[in-house]
Amino acid sequence: MKNSYPLTTRKLGDIIAHAGGAEISVARFLGQAKTIADELPRHTYVVNLAASRYEFLLGLCAAIIAGQCTLLPPNRQQQTLQQLRENYADCYLFGETDVEGIAGFYADPEHYASAAAAVDVPVIPRHQLCAIAFTSGSTGASTPHPKYWDTIHVGAQANARLLGLSDAKPANMLATVPPQHMWGLEMSILLPLFANIAVSHETPLFPQDIRDALAALPEPRILVSSPVHLDAFLRADIEATRISRVLSATAPLSAELARQIETRFGATVTEIFGCSEAGSLAARSTASETLWRISDVFDLQVHDDRINVLAPHLPERVVLHDRIEMVGERQFRWLGRDQDMINIAGKRGSLAHLNHKLTQIPGVVDGVIFLPAEDSKRLAGLVVAPGIEPSAILEKLKEAVEPAFLPRPFYSVPMLPRQETGKLARKMVLELFASLGSKANDDAEPADNES
Amino acid sequence: MRPQSEFEQDIAQLIVESLNLEDISAADIDPDEALFGEGLGLDSIDALELALAITQKYAVQLKADDANVQEVFGSLSSLSAYVAENAP
What we know:
The complex is a heterodimer.
Chain A: E1 4-6, E2 15-19, E3 22-25, H1 26-39, E4 45-48, H2 53-65, E5 69-72, H3 78-87, E6 91-94, E7 104-105, H4 109-112, E8 123-125, E9 129-136, E10 142-148, H5 149-162, E11 171-175, H6 182-194, E12 197-200, H7 207-215, E13 221-225, H8 227-235, E14 245-248, H9 255-265, E15 268-275, E16 279-284, E17 292-294, E18 299-303, E19 306-310, E20 318-320, E21 322-327, E22 331-337, E23 341-344, E24 347-350, H10 351-359, E25 366-370, E26 380-384, H11 390-400, E27 410-412, H12 426-437
Parallel strand pairs in A: 2-12, 4-5, 4-6, 5-9, 6-7, 11-12, 11-13, 13-14, 14-15, 26-27
Antiparallel strand pairs in A: 1-8, 2-3, 9-10, 15-16, 16-17, 17-22, 18-19, 19-20, 21-22, 23-24, 25-26
Helix pairs in contact in A: 1-2, 5-6, 7-8, 8-9
Chain B: H1 6-18, H2 44-58, H3 69-72, H4 76-86
């Protein structure tokens, strides 16, 4: 096995990005990355907060060239940055000014734009720690997942094969998901280093912006997104633009939504199954397939109800929080998540943990937080807390859990429909919840006056 | 808090309905308080959902490049003003 791998397998003349109305060649990109690498502060860790996707790519590769490790926080909230500073004292921010006492470094485009084009590709030791991704638990505290260069290098090429992009013709990519998130990183940052893809510097959110950013790219176009963004894009009444491929992950995509996207944009929709620890594990054409094809570098082993993911390029085996049924050796059917595990806005959490935090709040007699439906975008909650406004309880809960997990709506009720054993049946909770929702518009505090 | 204008009341109602905020009353949204982050604590999924609701009701397409989106979504007051100005 080799001890080092090149930073990119692309040819120097290939186009790797569209930024500021210009096509950026690999040679130009590498020249800029090397220039920035020479000027980076001499620290071990860097938090890349660049707003432009191209700047993020430059910052990540400059850090790799300089032997620095990029931290990928789940968000840029004050709390998150403070936590990073506590755990990685020697870190600085890339693409930002000083925040929360962390020094910022801003690469000036005026300066690096004039860098000489590179004539060779940097080679990176395979054991170099290049990035640390974090999965956010429901506490808001996060678990680090180290990414070594061989994990990145081997994983990105496996993704290219999984998506049929290994030897494909040049394509242009737009992503609506941030590059700091594992899904956005794998597709819009790492794939362009190893497959024939030029990525747009933009990260549009609103449908009209997505449409405009797509239209600005030459065909064929690939859109990397999530079900929430795709659903909004489809529902918005805007002029359609042609898209060849749509790649979706972060939450389950319905077959119906996949079909509608295919019809409207003429695209092939591919859904990817993955996690921050292992990356993209499997793919399917959701409009017509129910089974997932496993990426050729991974082995999935099912032991009792536990699924272990093994791969030569992963530092350790990964345990999945999903229930699956293997179909042959290389395909599986997804049966659902572990009942306790939820994924809201790309963040994972445990319902048991959330419920524990809720019932620990002084004045709360009983309470439950739940996902109203498998495809719900938000959690909902019911609380028994006589004399306390639900909003005051939410304020308290906000201090203990990740904001995306705050239940909405959150109703106060006289009691929960617990059985004699104390068990709370999901069906009963949903019935009570449904009965409250219908009255909500007539009564500002629907549950307080119930007898 | 200063009272909501008539148009702000409409937008407040739209916010509550489109974002499933049934547990708060539209009339309680402070026109000058932050909608995102602190304040109501909305996030980008809410921004997207709200943008769609505004497009459907007022035929206004929100775009990030023709205005500072963070400013537009800053408060009920700034959002209402933006919709009023851009409605056909």
